[in-house]
């Protein structure tokens, strides 16, 4: 059995599509899997069961990257081709079964939209695969028995990044002696190029308590997140990675639709600005260019602290 899985360059969309791939693995035990993904998200699949090959997709002019991918795949006989990008590439490959995402539906969660390629009634929850190598790394990086607060203070666009200084204040509140995670270790996650924009957060933290995962591969990050107690972060791929890893995840929203991209799972929640998504994005002065000021200013520290406390205490008996 051979499965070709074509997925997104964006980490978030790739994570959200993984439930579909997991469904295929359950339908076809022992299948060999080839994953074609953007270079940013490719490392997400290093520990997938039955991995045969990862094909990084680098965008080229005139959509030549799809022709290049076809050239890599056309000579093989596939049992299943799953195209989460809706490229139509599978129609030019030999396969017994093809699953291709169709029209976009902004009214539903992205997972619901992606899962429509399946016949299942319930959308499959996103997953992230780890292996013994990455799990052992996480044991070395995250002390056994230690409480861990994980944060994702960066975002791929400045407009949806909660002010960095408030993350420092949030950490202080949540890890204070009377906080929900007193003296917890502090796990900081971000892409390599985002270190500079969140440096003020790192500088404000006690070095002996910091677990610096900025720029780490996604599988190691996921393995470490599995050993964490709470994740709080902006709407980002790392937020979805945390939810898929099974840690309680609180997403912060402003100029992005929470009904479309909230972290998925029973142990997840989101909190947004008092202004709704459309109120922000339809304002005459709204600017989607890079470097704009945050549209998250009205999301107060108290609002996030309260949401974090409610999520962390969910399902627990409070004396």
UniProtKB/TrEMBL annotation:
Tell me which UniProt keywords the record has, alphabetically: Glycosyltransferase, Transferase
Q: Which domain of life is it from?
A: Bacteria
UniProt-listed Gene3D superfamilies: Glycogen Phosphorylase B
Is Iron one of the keywords?
no
* Keyword Transport attached: no
SUPFAM superfamilies reported for this sequence:
UDP-Glycosyltransferase/glycogen phosphorylase
Any matching Pfam family: Glyco_transf_9
Official protein name in the record: Glycosyltransferase family 9 protein
